Amino acid sequence: MICTRCLRNPFGAPVRSRISASAINSVSGRPLRTPSTPRAFSILCTRRPRILASMSNTPSPSISSTLITPTLDLLPKISSHPSLAGIQVRNGPRDTFNPSHRVRKRRHGFLSRIKTRKGRNTLKRRLSKSRSKLSH
Which UniProt keywords are given for this protein, alphabetically ordered (predicted)? Predict the structure, then answer.
């Protein structure tokens, strides 16, 4: 069934019911008002933000040749997007990788696993699966 008030009405015109106008008049007590022309709906407020052409600043070629442009990252950070400036990004990329054997053992080693409850659970799980190496 198609809703008469819905903006997704594919026919453009209001859908008329199969019930006669006299039956509705007898129930409601007032005459049924039928529009002579179908109303055209327009959405004034869009749901998604748009970038207007007047807001986009593109420098002219003569000015851009004198400016020094910095090197751009291939994959910028998640939190660098302007819409995410005010919120906290929890699982974004981090630059904590250090290719050092000591750092790896400090973060994922046996002694660090024993210190915490989750680490002890990890060791128990790997021991129950009979892994040859429980940790680094």
Answer: Ribonucleoprotein, Ribosomal protein
